[in-house]
Amino acid sequence: MAPTRGTPTRPIRIDSTLWERFGASVGSLGLDRSAVLRDFIRWYTREPGAKMPRRPDVTASAKE
């Protein structure tokens, strides 16, 4: 993963409930929202070597 210190913030609008569920999901993998969003954007824009971010298994997300 590329360094992120000193990068500008990018405010986006997301429903509070969805944002909290996303935080719980990435937290269950020991990650944070920003890291997963950056990985997704790299994958989405077809950056060489980028991979789709990992998601928690169905049983973990069903408990949340």
- Uncertain spans: none
The helix tally amounts to 3
Whole-angstrom Rg: 13 Å
Helix-strand makeup class = mainly alpha
Strand content: under 5%
The overall pLDDT average reads 88
Number of domains: 1
Portion of residues within helices: 40-55%
Compressed to H and E, one letter per element, the order equals HHH
Give a brief rundown of this model:
This protein has 64 residues and is mainly α. The protein has three helices and no strands. The relative contact order is 0.16.
Structure in words:
By secondary structure, this protein is mostly helical. The protein has three helices and no strands. It has helices at 16-27, 33-44, 58-62. The termini are far apart.
List its salient traits.
64 residues, 3 helices, 45% helix, globular
Summarize the SSE layout with pairings.
Elements: H1 16-27, H2 33-44, H3 58-62
